[in-house]
User: Which sequence fits this backbone?
């Protein structure tokens, strides 16, 4: 093992920051300094200078308060929790400032802070606010202790060589060795998990091992507590990501996990380049960084699973990740992301980002339609992302559809197989609830997940998926759900007709569900449509509910309702139904209707048809919520009661259309009513035929064969017309009318 080198340093030379690699252990010599300096040049580029100024402001404000290291007491959001979080940021940032500026006051502050932790750490046991067996010592959960170590060890690395032997020994032994021992040996159940928490723990322990020259500690971090390779950092890179970089817990946790993955990988690369960590598993960590960006819209991550919806590309984890990835790849699209973020990091790769961005080398990030497989071998379902429509100034298409046909996502997964979301015009139109949690707000149960995360947010009816007999998929059993996933049947990003199709037969006993989502572009319409085909097959009688959670204010609907004005009944008693208020109900004997709402000056019409009578519920989330933990959001639910037998099951076909505009300031409204006059659906020998009639006259058929062979020819006769096409699906203009 080579001498430990954790960080790339930006040092002041002649008053102008230049980059060099800083050796971080006693007696270690820096290397490749001239190469780093020549590759990055001056770091007085605006982005780096602004980061330096921002960091100095934070650290000096912390220094003004003195060294404050309280005895741990509070859960997330409480005083001691937040103070220790500020402390690890201050240690990390003050170390960087000392390395860059050479100003002794930053070094002294880190030293005094760590000596205070050296006093505290030997006194600690389980945190008094622990919520489960995965308790931390400084924080209420062990994850936060790992985050503390990942940050603090980097700040310590910047000053360690300047300390006296006595101070160094005391901090080494009473802070960092204790912290590493706690994480890797006392918390082995966390350390050896294939999980985000273990990623942070292994990164902290491994970086500590490099800094202290403790080879055994590094090996434990890389290969697991028993060094067998069945756990540890390397195994996590192999099991937590699919081959194209999708993280099994979803985008929110992918963003969170990337910091320890990439920061530790950077340390591995600097200390043991022979491991070729950034080439490991076909460059999986760099793929994961790009995939994380693809899983966003206007900067905000798609809120799969237990996601906090406020998280965007503007997050500390990705400031680090983008800089490290750019340092490895020089991908100009990452400069575009850094420009969007308006942030970088105080390391050589951050200086390089700032310099090259200032030199005008950025290129737009290539947001694209893509299929992201799930599971370590890519065979546990997938997430389909369909992008279409006019792009904004940054080149990101206006309309994005996401089909969540992936695996459960472990304990943070929701019971929402074959669910979907839609973004348009800069907004989320078809919504996913994300997590029921107010992160780090003490008033809301210490910032932990709320009870409603289990009773509402994870339930199937809280998502845009098919629900059978008012029960969640897999009966709400996460362990069972982890064993099954949908089969991705087809994906196409062909211009004019993008398609994703998947099925699952394990969510409910005896029920098979297939969902096909299509985005056709039809002449005469101003935006792409979404066509949604859902087919449930079963030999038994069932109730099938198809909810759609949307953003906006209802304008009108074309069916008669029974409205609940004086009182709001609740839809059910369990499985999320207890949280739905019924505002209006309808019975549609022909199984056909339409609903229009408005959001941000744009109208949306949801038009639907079924294979028999439908009940309709117009509802809102928030019932049975005495602590006001849930957001109040509208929904429409289609209900089909179907008998069993040879033709048992139910089918739903729907169309979502964006149209028109409303400008309140100008008092102008255009096309507030749907440009589609009718939607019909029928099955002919297993082929789905969706007929869309425009008010202007033309008629189009979207024909879906469900055969993925692109060369297979298909034909059906419809009203005397023979419709022919090849492949999975096609858009066909019907004779008659002006097309």
Assistant:
């Amino acid at each position: 093992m080579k001498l430990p080198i954790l960080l790339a340093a930006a040092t002041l030379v002649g008053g102008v920051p230049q980059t060099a690699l800083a050796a971080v252990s006693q007696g270690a010599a820096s290397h490749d300094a001239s190469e780093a300096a020549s590759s990055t040049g001056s770091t007085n580029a605006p982005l780096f200078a602004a980061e330096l100024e921002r960091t100095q402001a934070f650290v000096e404000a912390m220094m003004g308060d003195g060294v404050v290291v309280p005895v741990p007491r509070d859960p997330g959001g409480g005083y001691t929790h937040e103070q220790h979080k500020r402390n690890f940021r201050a240690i990390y940032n003050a170390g960087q400032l000392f390395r860059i500026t050479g100003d002794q006051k930053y070094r002294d502050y880190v030293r005094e802070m760590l000596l205070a932790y050296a006093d505290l750490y030997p006194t600690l046991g389980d945190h008094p606010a622990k919520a489960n067996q995965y308790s931390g010592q400084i924080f209420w959960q062990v994850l936060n202790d790992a985050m503390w170590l990942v940050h603090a060890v980097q700040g310590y690395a910047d000053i360690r060589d300047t300390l006296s032997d006595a101070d160094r020994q005391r901090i080494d032994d009473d802070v960092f060795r204790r912290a590493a021992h706690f994480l890797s040996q006392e918390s082995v159940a966390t350390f050896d998990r294939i999980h985000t928490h273990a990623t942070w723990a292994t990164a902290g322990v491994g970086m500590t091992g490099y800094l202290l020259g403790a080879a055994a500690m590094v090996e434990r971090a890389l290969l697991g507590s028993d060094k067998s390779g069945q756990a540890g950092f390397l195994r996590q890179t192999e099991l937590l990501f699919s081959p194209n970089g999708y993280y099994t817990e979803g985008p929110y946790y992918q963003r969170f996990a990337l910091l320890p993955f990439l920061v530790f990988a950077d340390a591995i690369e600097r200390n043991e380049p022979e491991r070729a960590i950034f080439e490991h598993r076909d460059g999986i960590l760099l793929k994961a960084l790009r995939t994380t960006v693809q899983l966003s819209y206007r900067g905000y991550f798609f809120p799969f699973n237990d996601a906090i919806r406020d998280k965007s590309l503007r997050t500390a984890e990705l400031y680090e990740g983008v800089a490290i990835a750019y340092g490895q790849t020089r991908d100009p699209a990452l400069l575009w992301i850094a420009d969007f973020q308006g942030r970088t990091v105080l390391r050589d790769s951050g200086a390089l980002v700032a310099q090259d961005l200032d030199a005008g080398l950025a290129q737009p990030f290539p947001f694209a339609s893509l299929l992201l497989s799930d599971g370590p071998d890519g065979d546990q379902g997938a997430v389909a992302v369909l992008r279409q429509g006019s792009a904004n100034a940054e080149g990101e298409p206006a309309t994005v559809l996401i089909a969540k046909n992936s695996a459960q996502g472990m304990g943070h997964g929701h019971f929402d197989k074959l669910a979907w979301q839609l973004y348009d015009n800069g907004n989320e139109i078809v919504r996913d609830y994300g997590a029921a949690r107010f992160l780090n707000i003490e008033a809301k149960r210490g910032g932990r997940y709320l009870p409603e995360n289990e009773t509402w947010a994870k339930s199937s009816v809280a998502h845009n998926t098919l629900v059978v007999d008012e029960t969640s998929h897999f009966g709400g059993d996460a362990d069972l759900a982890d064993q099954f996933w949908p089969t991705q049947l087809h994906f196409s990003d062909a211009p004019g007709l993008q398609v994703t199709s998947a099925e699952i037969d394990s969510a409910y006993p005896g029920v098979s569900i297939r969902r096909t989502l299509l985005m056709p572009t039809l002449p005469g319409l101003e935006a792409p449509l979404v066509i949604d085909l859902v087919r449930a097959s079963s030999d038994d009688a069932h109730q099938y509910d198809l909810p759609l959670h949307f953003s906006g204010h209802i304008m009108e609907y074309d069916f008669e309702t029974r409205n609940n004005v004086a009182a709001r009944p609740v839809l059910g008693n369990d499985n999320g139904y207890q949280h739905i208020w019924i505002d209006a109900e309808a019975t549609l004997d022909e199984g056909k209707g339409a609903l229009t709402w408005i959001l941000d000056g744009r109208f949306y019409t949801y038009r639907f048809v079924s294979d028999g009578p439908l009940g309709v519920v117009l509802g809102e989330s928030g019932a049975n919520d005495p602590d006001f933990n849930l957001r109040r959001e509208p929904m429409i639910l289609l209900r089909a009661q179907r008998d069993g037998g040879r033709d048992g099951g139910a089918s739903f076909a729907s169309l979502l259309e964006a149209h028109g505009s409303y400008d309140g300031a100008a008092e102008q409204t255009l096309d507030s009513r749907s440009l589609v006059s009718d939607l019909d659906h029928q099955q002919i020998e297993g082929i789905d035929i969706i007929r869309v009639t425009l008010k202007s006259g033309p008629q189009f058929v979207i024909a879906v064969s469900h055969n993925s062979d692109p060369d297979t020819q298909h034909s059906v006769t419809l009203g005397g017309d023979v419709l022919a096409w090849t492949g999975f699906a096609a858009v066909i203009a019907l004779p008659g009318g002006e097309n």
Observations:
- The two ends are 70 Å apart (CA to CA).
- The chain has a mean pLDDT of 92.
- The chain has 17 helices and 31 strands.
